[in-house]
Amino acid sequence: MRQVTELPLHGGRAPRWLFGRMVKLSRAISNVIIDEFGPEEFLSRVCDKDWFQALSCAIGYDWHSSGTTTVTMGALKEALKDSGDVFIAGGKGKAGTNTPNDIIEGVDKLSIPAEGERFIEQSRLAAKIDASLVYDNIGIYHHSFIFTRGKRWGVVQQAMKYNTNYAIRFQWLSDTVDGKDVANEPHTAIDTSMRANSMDLTFSDNKEIRESSVSLLREHDSINKVTYPSRHPIIPNLDVGKKGWETIRKASELDPRDYRELLLIKGVGRATLRSLALISSLIYEKEIAYRDPIAYAYNLGGKDRIPFEINRRTYDSVIREMEDIVDKANMETGEKYRVLKVLSQKLK
Q1: Domain boundaries, given as residue ranges, for the chain
Q2: What element of type H or E holds 73?
Q3: What is the mean pLDDT of residues 116-127?
Q4: Among the four residues 75, 102, 240, 261, which has the most C-beta atoms within 10 Å?
Q5: Residues near 37 by Cβ (< 8 Å), separated by ≥ 6?
Q6: What residues have CB less than 8 Å from 1, skipping those under 6 apart?
Q7: 344 or 128: which carries more pLDDT confidence?
Q8: What are the φ and ψ backbone dihedral angles of 33, each rounded to 5 degrees?
Q9: Which residue has the higher pLDDT, 41 or 233?
Q10: What is the mean pLDDT of the chain?
Q11: Distance separating alpha carbons of residues 264 and 339, to the nearest angstrom
């Protein structure tokens, strides 16, 4: 079964004041996940379409637009450029064409130089397969190749379907790639516009077609489709389920006075505490992200003021507290990330 999601194209770019904050917050979130669960788990989450969408919402980008891919990956690449566990190569436009050079830099940084040529080959194959073997009249304009010191890799790339206002996001994870037939349904997810049946040579039933290179392709309907509408407003109980709204409610009802001793934060406000709680659920209760990724748009708001305008003071407060939590964990004073773990339990 294929996972398919439509991502409408929205105009505009991430303003500088927002992108810098996205980098800082995504760095803190990523560091907790890598430290708590390991770089392999982090890679798996980035390659999961729902968790990735939830992260994009949590750090304040549009809740459903095509820019969630390019901007979120750009923020993650900048955030993790000094990581010794994970490396992100490529990006949008010219950055994507520079992926091979980035990979060589990355394998040296992670001390796995022997993997360079293999990673470059996998990167090129992923781009070629999605551009040439999935016939949906597309042109790839963003290509990111993510890999770990443990030699696992993933791909997040995006294309526009010509003459439409929808983008197609392809996500790969090395664990799911058939070593004997790399073109046999390699994706963890394909987020796309599917207005008509797509002639897809990566479909498993098309193995003989790939091998014989005949031109007669099979069309198929085995698509698990999720559609993000072009409208801007978020509609309760349609875009976010009951569990998601319950999570938002619980986060909003947390009382800073009850958690001052726990957080060791003087004067933390309700909005900051709510955001820390939602971020904790993204890290520790990730099934919420898989079920209701749009719920995380209520973390700090969105670029286009949907569901509400981002408050820069609150955003900065959340960054400070997350960075402080990470710093304290690095000092190994007491139980690591105790605050986030406790807050995540309060949202169950």
Answers
A1: 2-227, 242-345
A2: helix 67-79
A3: 92
A4: 75
A5: none
A6: 222, 223, 224
A7: 344
A8: -65, -45
A9: 41
A10: 82
A11: 9
Q: Spell out a b/e string for 283-322, using b for 16 or more CB atoms within 10 Å of the CB, else e.
A: bbebebbeebbbbbbbbbbbbbebbeebeeebbebbbebb
Q: What are the backbone dihedrals phi and psi of residue 190, each rounded to the nearest 5 degrees, phi first?
A: -130, 115
Q: Quick one: CA dihedral 295, 296, 301, 303, positive or negative? A: negative
Report the C-alpha gap between 158 and 113 in whole angstroms.
27
Cβ burial 100-134 (10 Å sphere, 16+ → b, else e): bebbbebbeebebeebbeebbebbebbbebbeebb
Cβ neighbours of residue 36 under 8 Å, at least 6 residues apart?
A: 283, 336, 337
Token pair recorded at residue 148:
């770990």
* CB-neighbour burial class of residue 10 (10 A; exposed 0-12, middle 13-18, buried 19+): middle
> Which tokens belong to 280?
């904790």
- H/E/C letters for each residue in 208-226? HHHHHCCCCCCECCCEEEE
Please state, in angstroms and as integers, the Cα–Cα distance from residue 272 to each residue in 100, 262, 304, following that order.
40, 14, 20
Phi/psi for 152 (5° steps) reads -90, 155
Closest CA to 14 of 64, 68, 95, 52: 68
Q: Angle CA(202)–CA(206)–CA(208) in degrees, nearest 5?
A: 125
> What are 284-328's pLDDT values in tens digits?
988 889 999 999 999 999 998 999 999 999 999 999 999 988 988
- By the 10 Å C-beta count (0-12 exposed, 13-18 middle, 19+ buried), 82 is classed as exposed
Please state, in angstroms and rounded to a whole number, the distance separating the CA atoms of residues 65 and 9. Answer: 6
Cβ burial of 17 (10 Å; 0-12, 13-18, 19+) is: exposed
